[in-house]
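Researcher: Final request for today, and then I'll write up notes for the group meeting. The sequence and the SMILES for fe (ii) ion follow.
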Amino acid sequence: MLTNTHTSALSKPLGEYIGASDVQIRENRGRHVVLIVDDDPTIRELLRRVLTMAGYRTATADGGLESLAAIDQFEGAITAVVTDVSMPGLDGLGLIGAAAARKLDQGVQFYLMSGAPHSLSMARTIGLPISGTFQKPLDIVALVARLDADLLAPAKVEDEIALDGIGWLGRALAHHDKVTGAHSDQVARYTAILSGAMGLPVGLAEDITSTSVLHDIGKIGISDMILNKPAPLTDDEFAVIRRHGEIGHSILTAENHRLSGMASQIARHHHERFDGTGYNRLAGYDIPLPARIVALTDVYDALRSPRPYKPALTHEEAVSCILKGDGRTKPEHFDPAVLSAFEGIKDVFERVDRHD
Ligand SMILES: [Fe+2]
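Model: Predicted protein-fe (ii) ion complex:
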């Protein structure tokens, strides 16, 4: 029996916590294992008992390292991790970052809880794969509702299928052209950071990040002789390369899902420029927001990447090209809000591992 001695971290009385009466909901919740991570045994035990009462299966850990081992060991069994931010050893941010780096984040929803609001917003800014944040004292009704929405909603199945499709297409492109495959992954990493820094709703930022990986999918329809030509392109070859936007659009546009719709927009419009001098001469806010964001992350990665006909620029040189211009790249090419968000977090880009 829970007592009020457990409620110091909570914002509502215990009586309001959810004990699902609906059998179907309890059954669906029972398909998921939620790993609860907190160095405070009182909060850990409280969350365990409440989530168990609601029908979820639970596991607990008192730190990041132990949790990482559990996610790894029970491969695929843990579908949600609710973790405290501040813990000795590997903290909550480190746990999620390490899980993502080791590719343990696929199929796992991560939630952060903290008493310090700035640590929750920082987690989003650095682009960690976070599904939700909860401020302490915890509103457990909201926490359970969020778990239900993310883990039980039927729409998630469609999203999973769409995300699988994005993964398959991305790997097909990487087989066709390794350089573009690596560039696409890198652009998605930068897009996660930049979308987070723009203060977009988390779901939208995640969608833009997921779909940005397909921005160059149209290159699958371009000869690899041209793509990998170890010299500057002729005008005719450049005209062929320019077709990749429309090819990408035609590959993705047949699908009727918000993620393929967004991927299609990005594929078609990532070479637009805000001043209207890009591929299709679209200008300003006529260019879809996801494409305005990827336009910058694409250029940043292209500047940082070595090509047979040009050396890689340093981070500082690439930043200077984008913010001040170098004759070819100009600040007017980018959405001022995207540019300003980039200026604010540009140093985070430097800390992202590079593929080359
Ligand atoms: Fe492109």
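Model: The chain has two domains: 4-153, 156-350. Residues 215-216, 244, 270-271 surround fe (ii) ion (CB under 6 Å).
Researcher: Thanks, that's everything.
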